[in-house]
Amino acid sequence: MMRSWAIFDSPVQNALHTLKYRGNAGIGDALAMHMAGYVRSLNWDVDLLIPVPLGRKRLKERGYNQVGLVARPLAYEIGWHYSQNALSKSRDTRSQVGLSISQRKENVFGAYRANPELVMQKSIMLMDDVATTGSTIQSCTQALKTAGARDVFAFTIARALPHHDLNHV
């Protein structure tokens, strides 16, 4: 099951770009506080909140995981456990921006690994910034289930609608 908090459009799009490219942690905190009520209303039985990880190269370039800047304060606000180490990217992938649906799926296929010690028999909320085709969520979910996660709920800050241009997401 996947839910998104907002449509990927202004002002959320602007906030996410500022978070992603300028590392403004204050925006992450603000988004988390605004999303907390909605996330609670989903009534998901969650043991652990995990952000979609970045590859080593991208993390080194950026210095932070933008999803983690929202996921960590969201977990804290709701009272859930948080782990940035339960899921990792096993290989660097191309940016999904500008790729077709089939290219996106191929790009992230098998690119994630979950730590069984941290996810076994747990109910996970997997969090990403923007959902476009769902390829990243699908690949991460497969890794979590393979490692023994009981349930995986996917949550994104925003959802790109079909009429949005994939070159800008």
Description:
With 169 residues, the protein is an alpha/beta fold. It contains 7 helices and 7 strands; from the N terminus they run E-H-H-E-H-H-E-E-H-E-H-E-H-E. It has helices spanning 12-22, 25-41, 56-62, 68-78, 101-108, 116-119, 135-146; strands spanning 2-7, 48-51, 81-82, 87-89, 112-114, 123-131, 151-159. The strands form 2 sheets. Strands 1-7-6-2-3 form a 5-stranded parallel β-sheet, sandwiched between helices. Strand 6 (123-131), helix 7 and strand 7 form a beta-alpha-beta unit. Helix 2 packs across helix 4. The chain is globular, with a radius of gyration of 15 Å. The two termini are 22 Å apart. The mean pLDDT is 93.
List the helices and strands and how they pair.
Elements lengths: L1 E6 L4 H11 L2 H17 L6 E4 L4 H7 L5 H11 L2 E2 L4 E3 L11 H8 L3 E3 L1 H4 L3 E9 L3 H12 L4 E9 L10
Helix pairs in contact: 2-4
State the low-pLDDT regions, or none.
none
Query: Major sheet: size, sense and barrel closure?
Result: 5 strands, parallel
Distance between the first and last residues' Cα: 22 Å
Q: Radius of gyration in whole Å, from Cα?
A: 15 Å
Instruction: Name the shape in a single word.
Output: globular
Number of helices: 7
Order of helices and strands: EHHEHHEEHEHEHE
Based on secondary structure, the structural category is alpha/beta
The total strand number stands at: 7
Percent strand equals 15-25%
Q: How helical, in percent, are the residues?
A: 40-55%
Gist of the model:
With 169 residues, this protein is an alpha/beta fold. The protein has helices at 12-22, 25-41, 56-62, 68-78, 101-108, 116-119, 135-146; strands spanning 2-7, 48-51, 81-82, 87-89, 112-114, 123-131, 151-159.
